[in-house]
């Protein structure tokens, strides 16, 4: 028997009918008994309660209008036919052939988009539901840190989602629509877009080109990471493929093209990650596309009732925010019905079968020059309307030991009670190493990070000398890097236990004061340090900061000279990658240095200088090397303040700028620049026991590059 509730459209093969004061009577029987009222009650609560029902097999209230459990009878006679009218609500029981739950949902109009997710309220649960906002791009919203509310359904799978529970949850982490154990196989179609075939220099195939991927290739949307296998790392052959995926909802075999869409449950997005070298080395493609994590899938499953024509979708593939692939699905060589019909000939396609339908033009292999997926790349598959954006950040495959450690970190984090710390007790004195400092508990809006390493910079020297107004005792830490081991209750869901993070500010950013607001301005709203015509610049002070300045300036196309007064700095400047070498390396107190700068600039002077040292005389010396209206950026902190020749500044209109701030946009741009141009930092690693006199050694230029302290906990 099948029951359909006319308000929530929930089907079921069994029904528990609830009534308060009167029985439900089979059609044809007497409609009056001694216990039944002459007519139904008309108060709102009576109407609502009468309408309540539940699935007998689930044993749960499922209609959102049901507010109580009611006494009744269970009707399972296959020939029973009952109609009961009450106000505008109608409950219909009718006989029908037994169908699968996925088929029932395919016929239901209550559901249109399904998500499988972990709720914020209970991280150990996996739920199924429909986004409360019918238009929201779930993947894009989560990637931006926005909250996504979901109306929860009672089932445990998109193949049997149950019915609405009437509750709403917020997504903590979205999962692939289908778990690996729900997918028998992933059937894939190659070379199925006309423009993609053209970019490969191939004629459109006469029949679908089929290969298969195992279920172990499935990976969740962001924040889950995609994997670049070691085979692809060796020759940079990892590639992306934005694709439309079809999920089969009922068993299909030998189906015709005309009836093929009847077997579809819904549609989602997929990324058919490939290893091109392995693909081209052999005629069978499966090996090159079957590595673990080679099929990101999600974020929503859109039922066919919402996507009635799969040729009317628009798809884009975006790498690091740039559009690399873009096409309508009307460019498919073989349509979705044709693919389903072809795959089902002599072959059973069970519910849960995923069919990946091919990729449009723009893959890395087809670009000039060729492109590849590399460690740190973000790739997004956007299919609109309705499906949304599937995003993953890709990481190189690690050793089995590290993969296991990182994979299990969130479930096995142990935070000790105490930790080591280097504490500044008195200005101008060495740090004191302590062994039993209590580990703080994160406040609601705080993240607890197990620090692996922390740098020491000129701003730490400011604290050491008492220039900044910090209270003592003070535990120093500059731009630490580590792993999240604790989260406050109000921390956005973009952060997770086990995330590896870096911190770019050693003070607490409030994001509300003028300083924080200024630091968060976009690059376009600020007077930049360098304009396009500032082609010649000098970096004075080649330490941990100056060595990065050289490389960034060269990567931007500037002519650069590196200047230092210590052999360790001069040696450091000559050790950068060859494509980022400075044009000149000069010693500040060399008698010929000033003339060399004049020759380098044709007597005009430098357009800009960046002073990365706290030497008292360095800023004035650098200002005198500038051309009229040149810019000096003071990044160091001289103990006795900045001192300049006033005639030089006034008569030649020299601009002096000081900054230690950077916006999030600038930080992202910087990190992308590091990866793109191979910029390297230079470090001297110290244990905590070796770092008590780090300030004095830093002032004595005892370190090559930036000193970094390896942090340890009990």
UniProtKB/TrEMBL annotation:
It comes from the Eukaryota. Belongs to the FAH family. SUPFAM superfamilies: FAH, GroES-like, NAD(P)-binding Rossmann-fold domains. Residues 28-47 are annotated as: Disordered. It comes from Fusarium oxysporum (strain Fo5176). The keyword Metal-binding applies. Residues 185-392 form the Fumarylacetoacetase-like C-terminal domain. The lineage of its organism: Eukaryota, Fungi, Dikarya, Ascomycota, Pezizomycotina. GO terms for molecular function: acetylpyruvate hydrolase activity; metal ion binding; oxaloacetate tautomerase activity. Residues 544-675 form the Alcohol dehydrogenase-like C-terminal domain. This is Enoyl reductase (ER) domain-containing protein. Residues 443-539 form the Alcohol dehydrogenase-like N-terminal domain. GO terms for biological process: oxaloacetate metabolic process. Residues 29-39 have a biased composition (Low complexity). Keywords: Metal-binding.
